[in-house]
Structures are given as structure tokens and as C-alpha cells.
């Protein structure tokens, strides 16, 4: 059995952590712990690094965490910035547009818009030469003893560490092993989400523009931000997520959005040619009374999963990792106490974001045509000078 760090009594040497998951939460935790002198091993079930994904926004605590982690110099050049949003009819004709300046004024200058893959790549580059990363591996068993935690990996390796961080996503293997089966914690919100990069710049979407169709029960967005920077995003209501998953992204998204034209039609044709690039899953939240047990802690989607409807998952992953490091530094001799303190500091923010996501579902998949019209009226209204300040203050309150 190999030891990570000292893996012995607290205070007797370098502490070791095993981080499960090489996504945003896991890599951020690895970086933060390494910065504090921990010996870290990261394991990832995928055989190699993943890239692509949809847009994520870092503002408020998420931006501040990226700053404290030292990521801003590498992230800033990858910032997509603000772009014009165009609401369209089903055939792709323009309804109205929201200039980039409106969003910029509301969010402020301490914000970044990034592709998820760019954020993961930046984190990977920051830790790749500092910590050990093992791909194609996951956890088969977890056991605690008086000196730490022992993880048996899928390749038969046994690793002893002072701390195990489960950052392996909404379908977390660590959560299953330590806390119980996924159905105990997964709350299905009755929607599907699909997102994928576009290798070909969408012909029917103007440069620097994101077009969005919103109809009863569904939203489709296509962004033309130039070569290697364009992407598509879809979400829709569904009564049976398992049936949709069985169809796969191409058949399911085509059935749900195949009647739409222009940019959406372009994106679906590209998906048909390369379905492997798509992220496609049911939308659900993880709801737990506790995120830690002894020396095992869950982080990011494995612990809470606010969903894409919150628009804050990446920010919470960074903020959660940063706060975890702070708590562990403050409770050097008592890891369980550190994890309790960390959870108390973070849970109010997670609860708020999960509640906002549940309320925000009606914006992404309006229940009726009347809800669609009401949403359009609100989007038109925020461009009026008298209401723009009110929107700004609402967004700022949500970010603080």
C-alpha cells in the first residue's frame, strides 16, 4: 500500500490528499491544497483529458476565488467577454436583440465568460507539474482508520491519505461508496440538457452574436464567436429522462428541436456527424444533509450540483475548493472540524443557488406560450434606462 504524504498522525509530517475527479472542482482543490503544502494525487475515470463544453460565467465569489488561486493571468486572455444576444423565431428570424453593453453594465468588470474546457485546461496546466494525475482510474472501495483514509483503486492499487476529496461529478462514485446510492440524493428536475462545441462557424448566425429560441418547454441557443469558439446549448422538459438518455444526444435533440431552422438546424447537422462531442444528461440537483464523513468530503457537483439553470456551478466549484483550503489551514490538527467549518461557511450560498435554479427553470423551459410572452416582455424592458439600474442591482445582490 502506498502512502500519499505522511498519511499518519496529524502534525507528524506532510499531509496527503487523494482527489477523485479531474474536473473544475477536483483540479481547483488539488491546486489549493498543493499551495498549502499538501502532497496530492488526482485520479480521473476518463482515459484522457476532456475539452469543450458550454459557456460558464465567473463573477462574484467565483471570480474572487479564481483571483486568490492565481488563475486570472491565464484565464483573462481566454475571456469571451460580452456578446450581443438575439432572440429568434422558430425559423431563425430575429425578434429583437439585447446589446452586449446591457449585460456588461449589469454584471460589471469583475467577471469572466469562458468555455468550460478552457477553464479546465487552465487548471490542469496549473497543477500538471505539481501533483500526480492518474487517468483511466476510479475508486473501488474506501475505508477509514485511526490514521487516515485508505482507498482501493480500480487497478488494484491501495492509497493511504489524510483526506479524500470526492469531486467526481453528479454521478459520484465516492458519494455512492461512502454516503449511499445516487437515488437517495438525486432530485430529478424533469429536464434534459445538451451542449457541444461547433467545429464549423454557424452559417446562419452573425459573427459575435448568440441567438436564442425560447418556446414552451424548451430553449435552444447557438453562439457564433468565431472558429473554435462557437457552440450550441439545448434544454427541454421531458417526462422520462432515462428514455431520452437511451435515445442518445443526436436522436433526442433532433426529436425535440428538429423543427427549428437556421442556426439550430446547422448545429443539429453537425452533431449528427460527431455525436461524441456532446454533453447530454438529465438535469437534477444533489441534495444532502452533510457533505463530509470523517476524512472524506464531497466537493462541487458531487456534493450539491446546482444545475445549469443556476449558471453558477463553475463559480461554486472554485469557491468551494478555495474555502476548503482555508478551513483546512485554520484547523491543522483536526480535519473533521475543518470540514464542518467549511460546510457551515458554504452551505448558505449553495442553498441560495439551488433555490434560484429551481425558480429559473421557467426561463429556460417556460410552461406555456403566455410564460414565453411574459419572458420576452421582461427582456425587452431591461433595455429601458429606467429599469436597467434595477436589473443591475438585482444581479449584484445575487452575486454577493
TrEMBL record:
<dbReference type="InterPro" id="IPR002938">
    <property type="entry name" value="FAD-bd"/>
</dbReference>
<protein>
    <submittedName>
        <fullName>2-polyprenyl-6-methoxyphenol hydroxylase-like FAD-dependent oxidoreductase</fullName>
    </submittedName>
</protein>
<dbReference type="InterPro" id="IPR051704">
    <property type="entry name" value="FAD_aromatic-hydroxylase"/>
</dbReference>
<dbReference type="Pfam" id="PF01494">
    <property type="entry name" value="FAD_binding_3"/>
</dbReference>
<dbReference type="InterPro" id="IPR036188">
    <property type="entry name" value="FAD/NAD-bd_sf"/>
</dbReference>
<feature type="domain" description="FAD-binding">
    <location>
        <begin position="18"/>
        <end position="333"/>
    </location>
</feature>
Amino acid at each position: 500500500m502506498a502512502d500519499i504524504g505522511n498519511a499518519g498522525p496529524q502534525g507528524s509530517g506532510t499531509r496527503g490528499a487523494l482527489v477523485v475527479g479531474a474536473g473544475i472542482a477536483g483540479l481547483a482543490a488539488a491546486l489549493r491544497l498543493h499551495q498549502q503544502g499538501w502532497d496530492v494525487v488526482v485520479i480521473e475515470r476518463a482515459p484522457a483529458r476532456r475539452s469543450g463544453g458550454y459557456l460558464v460565467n465567473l463573477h462574484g465569489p467565483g471570480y474572487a476565488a479564481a483571483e486568490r488561486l492565481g488563475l486570472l493571468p491565464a484565464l483573462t486572455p481566454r475571456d469571451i467577454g460580452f456578446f450581443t444576444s438575439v432572440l429568434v423565431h422558430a425559423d431563425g428570424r430575429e425578434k429583437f436583440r439585447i446589446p452586449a453593453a446591457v449585460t456588461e453594465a449589469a454584471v460589471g468588470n469583475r467577471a469572466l465568460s469562458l468555455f468550460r474546457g478552457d477553464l479546465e485546461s487552465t487548471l490542469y496546466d496549473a497543477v500538471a507539474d505539481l501533483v500526480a494525475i492518474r487517468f483511466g482510474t476510479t475508486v473501488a472501495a474506501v475505508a477509514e482508520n485511526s490514521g487516515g483514509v485508505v482507498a482501493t483503486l480500480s487497478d488494484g492499487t491501495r492509497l493511504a491519505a489524510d483526506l479524500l476529496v470526492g469531486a467526481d461529478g453528479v454521478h459520484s462514485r465516492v458519494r455512492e461508496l461512502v454516503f449511499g446510492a445516487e437515488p437517495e440524493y438525486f432530485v430529478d428536475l424533469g429536464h434534459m440538457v445538451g451542449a457541444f462545441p461547433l467545429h464549423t462557424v454557424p452559417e446562419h448566425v452573425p459573427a459575435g452574436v448568440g441567438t436564442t429560441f425560447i418556446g414552451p418547454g424548451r430553449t435552444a441557443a447557438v453562439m457564433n464567436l468565431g472558429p473554435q469558439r462557437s457552440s450550441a446549448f439545448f434544454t427541454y422538459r421531458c417526462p422520462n429522462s432515462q428514455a431520452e438518455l437511451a435515445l442518445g444526444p443526436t436522436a433526442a435533440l433532433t426529436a425535440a428541436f428538429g423543427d427549428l431552422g437556421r442556426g439550430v438546424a446547422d448545429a443539429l447537422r453537425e452533431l449528427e456527424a460527431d455525436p461524441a462531442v456532446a454533453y447530454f444528461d438529465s438535469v437534477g440537483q444533489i441534495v444532502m444533509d452533510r457533505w463530509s464523513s470523517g476524512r472524506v468530503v464531497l466537493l462541487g457537483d458531487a456534493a450539491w450540483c446546482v444545475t445549469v439553470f443556476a449558471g453558477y456551478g463553475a463559480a461554486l466549484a472554485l469557491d468551494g475548493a478555495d474555502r476548503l483550503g482555508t478551513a483546512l489551514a485554520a484547523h491543522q490538527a483536526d480535519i473533521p472540524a475543518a470540514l464542518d467549518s467549511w460546510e457551515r461557511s458554504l452551505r448558505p450560498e449553495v442553498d441560495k443557488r439551488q433555490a434560484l435554479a429551481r425558480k429559473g427553470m421557467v426561463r429556460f423551459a417556460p410552461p406555456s406560450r403566455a410564460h414565453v410572452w411574459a419572458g420576452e416582455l421582461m427582456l425587452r424592458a431591461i433595455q429601458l434606462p429606467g429599469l436597467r439600474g434595477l436589473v443591475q442591482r438585482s444581479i449584484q445582490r445575487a452575486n454577493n
